[in-house]
């Protein structure tokens, strides 16, 4: 049985000597009860204590206080904070008098609990009842629009804000900036941002994040620098976006500087900043830094666990990835579809077929339906292991239509194991999908060329040209101080190209004495053997490594980033380079990391 909440008015009643049946006494008791319940609800909203909140709600129903709009407002907020939006909706529907505050609470509840469609529906209902939105309602509606990338609704809401005079409000303006940025309308976002009389951390953060999402990294960093120059107190959301920029651009030194700024401002303990830092250090080839950041964060969210898992998978720390998954289960952190994608990725690049099957089946235990990316990972796992028919069986048994990534995974397996017949079958299925990426055309051409069918390879490349699609140029780059040095195959534009080519010649002679023989089968063109030998000798990653050998101190690892996958001969050559030079060489291609040390690679030659 629920007991009435203790009232702190007995002593006051005795002092005032007001009879209990006096109307003034009743009014006094009502006001005290109202204040006590309001304060208690506010406290429960902050602590998010559900059992006590349910008891207080029952008491409110018994005493009839739910009829008061502000009490309903607090109850809606309480259930919103405890992630029970349907209970918030029930309280809202039971409220007799719905003020703008009540509407604001329920619309905000749906937006905060990732129910943007419902938030927009209630926003429209509110307008139908003739309630005008205010500076609290507009941000929630605009957030819902941004979550859905629904630019038409967002633009209409912006127009309504202009008509009602709320466009000058800093919170509404910041929400408009964030909405346009999330909808990919970066120019509109910048126009609103530049026109704001006052900007806060949300408007700056939304603008920076918008540039980050569109890959306009330089503009994102320029805006971040401007924010610091203007003395803005940057929050963890903004730090997270900028660190992500550094990770995507593999700009390690700048990332370290921003990490230092996070330490100074005490944002290093934020799980959002932490997950971005883990990705930064992982993408820049410093897996030790990623581990250190992960261990130092006291409270880890799911995003941080996933960031560490993908880092382990990319750096071939497979046992560590499995151990992390077990740790997640032990601390009751429920994995999501991204978590399983990371673990399947790890299995694929270590050839662990049975383990991959185990995690694929485990998804169903957690109530997660495999998506096209999970099926692509399973096809990739089986294809790399040479079980191509099993991979085809997986594709045929898919409950959804196979996507380009699924057929692409099969094509990769076909190329590795030189099954051109199956590759052609997969390619035919891809072209039935309609427009496909240039990478898919290149996969087909390479599969033909690897089997010596150069005419068919030429046809595939011609098809690529006929569609007006250009193959991406292979590039490799290294960071030195504040400069990034970029190289293409056979590149002679670098200021010290003479020294680089001389270094490669000297190192090549030493490698041949150590037993290196160039594998010209990776030159997928029908040319003479001498020309093939020359073509493969000056691939972009070798030029970048030679530059590192010349300019980096002996104790510093040489970290090379690539936009395409490293070829098989270069993989062998870099093993010899590491042995002959005594240096640690870390190469990141478009799929994973390779750590070369003393003639061995961390991938175990399974890649």
Topology of helices and strands:
Blueprint: H1 10-16, H2 23-47, H3 50-63, H4 69-81, H5 85-94, H6 100-112, H7 116-128, H8 137-148, H9 151-163, H10 170-182, H11 186-195, H12 201-213, H13 217-229, H14 236-248, H15 252-264, H16 271-283, H17 287-296, H18 302-314, H19 318-330, H20 337-348, H21 353-365, H22 372-384, H23 388-396, H24 404-416, H25 420-431, H26 438-450, H27 454-466, E1 475-480, E2 483-488, H28 497-513, H29 529-537, H30 540-551, E3 558-562, H31 568-581, E4 585-588, E5 593-597, E6 600-601
Parallel strand pairs: 3-4
Antiparallel strand pairs: 1-2, 1-3, 4-5, 5-6
Write a brief structural summary.
The protein has about 600 residues and is mainly alpha-helical. It is built from 31 helices and 6 strands. The chain has a 6-stranded mixed β-sheet with strand order 2-1-3-4-5-6, with helices on one face.
Mind explaining what this structure looks like?
With 607 residues, this protein is mainly alpha-helical. Helix content is 65%, strand content 5%. It has a six-stranded mixed sheet, covered by helices on one side. Strand 4 (585-588) and strand 5 (593-597) form a beta hairpin. Helix 2 runs antiparallel to helix 3 (50-63) and helix 23 (388-396) packs antiparallel against helix 24 (404-416). The radius of gyration is 30 Å and the shape is elongated.
């Amino acid at each position: 049985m629920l007991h009435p909440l203790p009232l702190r008015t007995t002593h006051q009643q005795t002092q005032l000597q007001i009879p209990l049946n006096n109307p003034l006494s009743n009014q006094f008791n009502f006001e005290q009860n109202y204040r006590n319940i309001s304060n208690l609800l506010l406290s429960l909203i902050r602590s998010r204590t559900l059992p006590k909140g349910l008891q207080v709600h029952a008491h409110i129903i018994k005493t009839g206080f739910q009829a008061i709009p502000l009490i309903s407002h607090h109850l809606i907020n309480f259930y919103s904070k405890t992630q029970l939006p349907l209970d918030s909706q029930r309280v809202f529907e039971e409220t007799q008098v719905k003020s703008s505050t009540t509407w604001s609470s329920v619309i905000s509840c749906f937006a905060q609990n990732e129910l943007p469609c419902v938030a927009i529906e209630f926003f429209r209902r509110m307008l139908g009842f003739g309630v005008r939105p205010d500076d609290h309602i507009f941000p929630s509606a605009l957030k819902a629009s941004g979550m859905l990338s629904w630019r038409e609704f967002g633009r209409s809401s912006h127009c309504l804000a202009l008509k009602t005079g709320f466009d000058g409000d800093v919170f509404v303006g910041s929400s408009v900036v964030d909405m346009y940025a999330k909808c990919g309308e970066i120019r509109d976002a910048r126009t609103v941002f530049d026109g704001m009389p006052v900007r806060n951390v949300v408007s700056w953060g939304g603008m920076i994040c918008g540039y980050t999402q569109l890959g306009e990294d330089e503009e994102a960093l320029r805006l971040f620098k401007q924010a610091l120059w203007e003395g803005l107190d940057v929050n963890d959301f903004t730090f997270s976006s900028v660190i992500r920029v550094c990770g995507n651009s593999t700009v390690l030194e700048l990332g370290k500087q921003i990490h230092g700024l996070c330490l100074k401002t005490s944002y290093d303990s934020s799980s959002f900043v932490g997950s971005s830092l883990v990705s930064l250090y992982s993408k820049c080839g410093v897996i030790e830094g990623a581990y250190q950041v992960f261990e130092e964060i006291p409270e880890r969210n799911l995003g941080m666990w996933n960031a560490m898992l993908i880092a382990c998978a990319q750096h071939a720390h497979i046992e560590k990835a499995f151990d992390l998954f077990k740790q997640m289960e032990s601390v009751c952190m429920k994995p999501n579809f991204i978590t399983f994608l990371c673990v399947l990725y790890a299995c694929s690049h270590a050839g662990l077929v049975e383990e991959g099957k185990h995690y694929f089946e485990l998804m169903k235990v957690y109530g997660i339906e495999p998506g096209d990316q999970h099926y692509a990972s399973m096809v990739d796992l089986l294809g790399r292991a040479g079980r191509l028919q099993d991979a085809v069986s997986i594709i045929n048994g898919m409950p959804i239509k196979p996507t380009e990534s699924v057929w692409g995974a099969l094509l990769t397996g076909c190329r590795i194991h030189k099954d051109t017949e199956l590759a052609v079958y997969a390619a035919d299925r891809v072209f039935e999908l309609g427009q496909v990426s240039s990478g898919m055309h290149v996969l087909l051409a390479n599969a033909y060329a690897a089997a010596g069918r150069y005419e068919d390879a030429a046809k595939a490349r011609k098809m690529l040209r006929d569609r007006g699609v250009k193959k991406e140029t292979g590039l490799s780059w290294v960071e030195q101080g504040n400069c990034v040095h970029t190289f293409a195959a056979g590149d002679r534009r670098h200021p010290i190209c003479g020294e680089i080519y001389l270094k490669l010649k000297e190192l090549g002679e030493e490698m041949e004495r150590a037993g290196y023989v160039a594998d010209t089968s990776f030159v997928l063109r029908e040319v003479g053997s001498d020309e093939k030998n020359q073509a493969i000798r000056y691939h972009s990653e070798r030029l970048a490594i030679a530059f590192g050998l010349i300019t980096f101190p002996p104790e510093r690892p040489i970290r090379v980033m690539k936009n395409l996958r490293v070829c098989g001969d270069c993989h062998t050559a870099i093993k010899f380079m590491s042995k002959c030079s005594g240096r640690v060489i870390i190469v990141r291609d478009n799929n994973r990391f390779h750590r070369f040390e003393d003639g061995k690679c961390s991938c175990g030659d399974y890649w």
